[in-house]
Amino acid sequence: MNCCHEGLEREFNQRSAAQKLAAYRRAGPDPSSQVLIDALVARNVRDATLLDIGGGVGTIQHALLGAGARASVGVDASRAYVDTATTESARRGYASRTHNMHGDFIALADSLAPAEIVTLDRVICCYPDMPELVRLSVAKAGRLYGLVVPRPLWWVQFARRAINGKARLERSPFRFFVHSIEQITAITRANGFAPVFAATSGVWQVCLYERQVNPPATTATG
Fold this sequence. Notes:
It is built from 9 helices and 7 strands, in the order H-H-H-E-H-E-H-E-H-E-H-E-H-H-E-E. The protein is an alpha/beta fold and 222 residues long. The protein has a single domain, classed as Vaccinia Virus protein VP39 (Rossmann fold, 3-Layer(aba) Sandwich). Strand 2, helix 5 and strand 3 form a beta-alpha-beta unit. The chain starts with a helix and ends in an 11-residue tail after the last strand.
């Protein structure tokens, strides 16, 4: 297990998963997640396949399956969240249409099948190697690529320093990142996608990209 993966396991533990599930059952998706869900559903998810990376308790999976998606695969670096998402899928009657995997997406990417829709809801901010994560994940998307990332505001940067300072004091390898939205978009464009939707929700930026009919001849390497 690398230090990034270990940090995610420690940060997103069983207690965190239980709290997140309780909040989800009580109030539904977080506002930024709901914005992404609405943007995806507006572009027709019926009979689509979904690859949800870092999906937590399965918020995006459950919503799109409920809106008519055919099947979903979830990948999460937290064992607690994988188990929670799997249990919640079964409770909602989606067990036969979902498959949740534990591990680092970058390490698993070669073994994963492409999907019509790929989502990373507040995942890129937990990854130090953003270019590789975006490059490998957008390569799996057939039609739509949806993200929720932190907005590059000064007070978000202040919060990032506070979160990472606390993690260092606790000897946790977890780190929070505010990556460049422009760089993320550049990588998606180089892989044949263009922005079709953008909105803000609190500290979060919601971005949706769609594959273009005539993509560039080369792909980005980061």
